[in-house]
Amino acid sequence: MSAPAPSPLAIVDAEPLPRQEEVLTEAALAFVAELHRRFTPRRDELLARRAERRAEIARTSTLDFLPETAAIRADDSWRVAPAPDALNDRRVEITGPTDRKMTINALNSGAKVWLADFEDASAPTWENVVLGQVNLSDAYTRNIDFTDAKSGKSYALKADEELATVVMRPRGWHLNERHLVDADGTPVPGALVDFGLYFFHNAQRLLDLGKGPYFYLPKTESHLEARLWNEVFVFAQEYCGIPQGTVRATVLIETITAAYEMEEILYELRDHASGLNAGRWDYLFSIVKNFRDGGAEFVLPDRNAVTMTAPFMRAYTELLVRTCHKRGAHAIGGMAAFIPSRRDAEVNKVAFEKVRADKDREAGDGFDGSWVAHPDLVPIAMESFDKVLGDKPHQKDRLREDVAVEAADLIAVDSLDAKPTYAGLVNAVQVGIRYIEAWLRGLGAVAIFNLMEDAATAEISRSQIWQWINAGVVLDNGEQVTAGLARKVAAEELASIRAEIGDEAFAAGNWQQAHDLLLTVSLDEDYADFLTLPAYEQLKG
Fold first, then answer.
1. pLDDT at 343
2. Residue 146's pLDDT band (boundaries 50, 70, 90)?
3. Burial class (CB in 10 A: 0-12, 13-18, 19+), 245
4. Which of 75, 129, 220, 337 has the smallest CB count inside 10 Å?
């Protein structure tokens, strides 16, 4: 019996955009509709499973490697598919949203890979969702020359052989696309919209360029979620007539539950797997989210005090390298988020040394590559990896068999000798308000205090405020963190911003709205799973 015809998808509550007809073709929407019909029900089951697992963690305050998948971990015979040439050398990757200027600058940056981001570095306005797809297609056809209207500066792509390889990051499973709904009015998951439109229009085009449809998979919480992605890849390749195994996916291990299933995640995706990535902010956010009832031993100090050298973070990164290399996958390190100052050479000097030390550590630990947020950091990171790799494309031959990580090591938060501070509370409020205000204006990657911040920044900021209030934390100045103290700090920050930018700019922005939203998700007794869910309801466009 033949499958039923895909439900027609309707575009709702969206102003028409220039060139959207190139992306939202009848054939492309039919493909997205079929993805939605086949895979959204399973997506919904897996989201429900997240809630069940979170309830179990609340009951037990622990996690362990899965007994039911022990045989997969014990089987030394399996490996992921070999890396295609275009993804074999990933020593430096640059990240950023898919606006036109960023697309050109990232591709020209000298990095080996560009993470083209439809997720945490992109506020999901309809314009960003659709025109981001236009920009990537234009880049592949070399029709993306651009002149900045403000500065008059022109941007153009370098020669093909000098361009970074694109690895596209769709939205996580939890976010829907409210502007694209089926016949029942049910929104399509943002992940399937982003993936589907990109794959449909560009898979063959990329193969013709000697590359392929490569993806970063965010917010994965279990190997079952990776299995669903693998099923999507198999179907998409069959539907579009693309050879099986063409897709490659790198999974961000940015949730604490996924850290216990790294081998299983690679196993589920093994014909399409490329590697795993070790992040920081979303990973810490996930620890707070899952262990928020766990008492004092799970209270995190200031976010900037939790570096990758913290014992429980070191356990996570070393286990990731060992796991990847055991299975023939790339291990990709974390983000250097510093944004160089045009005015303060001393600030740059200090920051560049920190970036260099961080990248030296990652290369020395066995990572095959790492992330930066700004083109000026590409040469620094490149130098760190060049020193270790030389002419080799990666160091998968370093099996790191010296690494032995126990289940308890990954959640030994109290092994870090640092405590919450008043300055840390202030910083969480400052960054939270400033980031959310920009996000509500449609900006997902925002420079704040010389750091490139994305949605993960706001998540860890509001989560720390919530955790410190609910744990009754006493700060270094003797004050207890309460809802009243958080409101006081937030009011002071709002007044400070008004004084800094002036009444006119303040009134033109979303400052009060951002302040209120941060306090809502920081003070509500019921902890919101993702800040971006209530924020999306307030996002215009």
1. 86
2. confident
3. middle
4. 75
Longest CA span, the chain: 71
Identify the sign of the CA torsion 168, 173, 177, 181. positive
What's the Cα-to-Cα distance from 74 to each of 80, 184, 267, 405, 456, rounded to whole Å?
15, 46, 12, 15, 34
- Shortest CA distance to 314 belongs to which of 405, 408, 418, 222? 405
Joined tokens for residue 257: 């539950």
Other CB atoms within 10 A of residue 343 CB: 6
pLDDT tens string 386-402: 999 999 999 999 999 99
Nearest to 336 by CA among 303, 366, 305, 380: 380
For the residues 149-160, what does the mean pLDDT come to?
Answer: 93
Residues in contact with 461: Cβ distance below 8 Å, sequence separation at least 6, in sequence order: 303, 427, 428, 429, 431, 432, 435, 518
What is the reported pLDDT for 5? 58
Residue 257, CA distances (Å) to 62, 65, 316, 410 in order: 10, 9, 11, 10
- Closest to 395 measured CA to CA, from 425, 418, 367: 367
The per-residue pLDDT for 342 is 85
Condensed to tens digits (0 to 9), the pLDDT of residues 252-303 reads 999 999 999 999 999 999 999 999 999 899 999 999 999 999 999 999 999 9
What residue spans define the domains of the chain? 20-56+84-389, 419-538
CA 84/CA 313 separation, integer angstroms: 30
Question: Residue 84's closest CA among 165, 162, 198?
Answer: 165
Question: 100, 108, 86, 277: which is closest to 165 by C-alpha?
Answer: 86
In words, the CATH class of domain 20-56+84-389 is: alpha beta
Each residue of 357-393: pLDDT tens digit? Answer: 999 999 999 999 999 999 999 999 999 999 999 999 9
Once rounded to an integer, what is the mean pLDDT over residues 154-162?
A: 96
Using DSSP's 3-state secondary structure scheme, residue 40 falls into helix
Which amino acid is it at 379?
P
Res. 1: pLDDT tops 50: no
Annotate 2-28 with three-state secondary structure: CCCCCCCCEECCCCCCCCHHHHCCHHH
Q: Which residue has 């958080």 as its token pair?
A: 486
The catalytic residue positions are 169, 454
- Proportion of the chain above pLDDT 90, given as a percent: 96
Q: Is it true that 20-56+84-389 and 419-538 share their CATH fold?
A: no
Specify the CATH number for 419-538; select among 1.10.287.3510, 2.160.10.10, 1.20.1220.12, 3.60.110.10.
1.20.1220.12
DSSP H/E element including 188: strand 187-189
Contacts of 198 (CB under 8 A, 6+ apart): 133, 136, 168, 170, 213
Q: Is 90 left (phi over 0), alpha (psi -120 to 50) or beta?
A: alpha
Q: Give the pLDDT score at 396.
A: 98
CA-nearest of 245, 233, 197, 312 to 83 is: 245
Helix (H, G, I), strand (E, B) or coil at 384: helix
